[in-house]
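We were asked to recover a plausible sequence for a given structure. The inputs and outputs are reproduced exactly as logged, with field labels preserved.

PROBLEM: sequence recovery
POSITIONS: 297
GIVEN STRUCTURE:
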């Protein structure tokens, strides 16, 4: 059918074409606005301006409870990377308050990667501070700032942490304690450990690096189950004490009988009061693993 028929316009044909065009065009519009998937319109996120350091400090000062006030000041110090804020923590004869103040200096020093701030902390906190930053910077020279008193331990721990982080066994030679040194070298070179090395490595990771028993590869599944089932008490279920040793750990010589071994680990505390643990190990797939730790009363 054509537009022109015998010299006349074919109005019937044009009408049909017009109707079809209207139907098709309307269908397209309906699809676009009703059925077609619509793009999500993203509204810009409105960020609330953060409070200034002065505002945060004023709010901390208005807190009545001293423990909450201490926590508030510590958080501001860490966020602002300002060790002077730590000095605002209330000075109380209270282990918790002392911990908050000392830990404040450590955390600020770590956040700024500035070992000079560690000098503001006291003794064991200062040593831990130097160790953390030495490990972060992979710089064993920072370990020299640690002053071992009448025992060897913290400085060795520092060298070991740096050696393992850098995967450089030559740094292990700086350690004075032979067990620590051997453990360090074997850790870097991925060699099997003797019982004494397994115990010192486990206690070091558990006490100073926060490695939980269930995450440790140095203990048996039986021991993991025992600790998991232990009812919460006032003392730590692994070391049978309330605090970690502040003067290091001494490992006795192991007694080995076939596939079993045992030894005494002594936790050293300032002011005396050494704490002995009896550690039992099993040889599993040529690897010594801790199977139990008891407190011989």
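RECOVERED SEQUENCE:
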């Amino acid at each position: 059918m054509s537009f022109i028929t015998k010299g006349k316009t074919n109005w019937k044909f044009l009408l049909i074409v017009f109707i079809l065009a209207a139907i098709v065009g309307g269908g397209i519009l309906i699809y676009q606005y009703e059925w077609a998937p619509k793009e999500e319109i993203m509204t810009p996120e409105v960020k609330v301006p953060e409070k200034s350091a002065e505002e945060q400090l004023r709010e901390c000062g208005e807190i009545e409870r001293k423990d909450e006030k201490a926590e508030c000041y510590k958080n501001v110090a860490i966020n602002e990377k300002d060790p002077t804020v730590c000095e605002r923590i209330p000075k109380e004869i209270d282990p918790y308050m002392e911990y908050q103040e000392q830990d404040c200096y450590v955390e600020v020093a770590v956040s700024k990667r500035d070992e000079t701030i560690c000098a503001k902390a006291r003794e064991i906190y200062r040593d831990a501070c130097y160790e953390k930053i030495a490990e972060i910077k992979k710089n064993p020279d920072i370990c020299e700032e640690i002053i071992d008193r009448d025992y060897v331990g913290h400085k060795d721990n520092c060298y070991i942490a740096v050696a393992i982080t850098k995967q450089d066994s030559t740094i292990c030679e700086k350690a004075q304690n032979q067990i620590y040194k051997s453990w360090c070298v074997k850790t870097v070179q991925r060699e099997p450990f003797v019982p004494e090395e397994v115990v010192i490595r486990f206690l070091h990771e558990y006490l100073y690096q926060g490695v939980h028993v269930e995450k440790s590869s140095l203990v048996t599944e039986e021991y993991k189950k025992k600790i998991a089932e232990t009812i919460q008490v006032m003392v730590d279920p692994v070391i049978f004490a309330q605090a970690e040793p502040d003067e290091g750990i001494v490992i006795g010589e192991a007694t080995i009988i076939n596939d079993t071994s045992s030894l005494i680990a002594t936790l050293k505390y300032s002011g005396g009061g050494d704490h002995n643990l009896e550690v039992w190990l099993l040889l599993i797939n040529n690897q010594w693993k801790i199977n139990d730790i008891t407190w011989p009363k």
